Amino acid sequence: MIILTFAIALTGCQDSGSTESEDEYQEVRENVWAYVENSEIPLRDKEVWLNGEIKEKVVDEEIVSHQQVDEKYLHQNVIMVVPADSKKYAAYPSFLVDPDTKEIITVLPGY
Q1: H-assigned helices in 1-111
Q2: DSSP secondary structure string, 85-106?
Q3: Is 53 left (phi over 0), alpha (psi -120 to 50) or beta?
Q4: Which of 32, 89, 94, 110 is buried most deeply by CB count within 10 Å?
């Protein structure tokens, strides 16, 4: 009985943390969409950005020097947003986002 109660409590904790992360990521996706909407990026399908894939990315020297990213991000983990169905939209950019402020740090060109 104690083990079952503990398992239920643990599951409940995991679910709330997952919801918080998903809410945080949704805010990030919305910020990316707002940026895209006000830019010249040709991919205007809102759902592609609001359902964008979230990845973790470590900012390296190449990103700092080529993308003119503030050096405070060097070797830091940031959030990377790529369009949903990234194989289909590989030519479109990805975004690096500050995990604390949820602001876009830079736009990485597609390939």
Answers
A1: 2-37, 46-50, 61-66
A2: STTTTTTS-EEEE-TTT--EEE
A3: beta
A4: 32
Q: Which of 52, 51, 53, 73 lies closest to 62 in space, CA to CA?
A: 73
- Residue 40's domain comprises 2-108
**pLDDT at position 52 over 50:** yes
Answer whether 0.85 is exceeded by the pTM: no
- As a whole number of angstroms, the distance between CA 74 and CA 59 comes to 5
User: Do 13 and 85 contact (CB within 8 A), yes or no?
Assistant: no
Q: How many domains does the chain have?
A: 1
Joined together, the tokens standing for residue 40 give 């010249």
CB 69 within 8 A of CB 62: no
Q: In what order do the strands lie in the sheet with 94-97?
A: 53-58, 77-82, 94-97, 104-108
pLDDT digits (tens, 9 = 90+) for 2-26: 443 333 333 344 444 567 788 889 9
